[in-house]
Amino acid sequence: QVQLVESGGGLAQAGGSLRLSCAASGRTNSVYGLGWFRQAPGKEREFVAAITRGGGRTNYADSVKGRFTISRDNAKNTVYLQMNSLKPEDTAVYYCASRGMGSYDYWGQGTQVTVSL
Hints:
Blueprint: E1 2-7, E2 10-13, E3 18-26, E4 33-39, E5 46-52, E6 58-60, E7 68-73, E8 78-83, E9 92-99, E10 104-107, E11 111-116
Parallel strand pairs: 2-11
Antiparallel strand pairs: 1-3, 3-8, 4-5, 4-9, 5-6, 7-8, 9-10, 9-11
């Protein structure tokens, strides 16, 4: 199994920045990709960004392109999400997830991000 623990959420003003971290432990050698998802109140969970473990290829939702950056430190088994130019609509619980060669199968507990005007 893989355990994922997010940190770094909190309150920010619109236009501000936050950086989320996700530390992985357990069978991390089985992890091919890591991603960030978010879920706002009353809405379904949505994809935010993803990165491959070895190649460093990244993918972003259109809503965050140019504002968010995903990166990883394999030595620390940690993935980051740098969030700039935050908007109130970015308010959500942010989840880290990992996958092998298939779908995302391990999830963190989530961290709250709240963006105020």
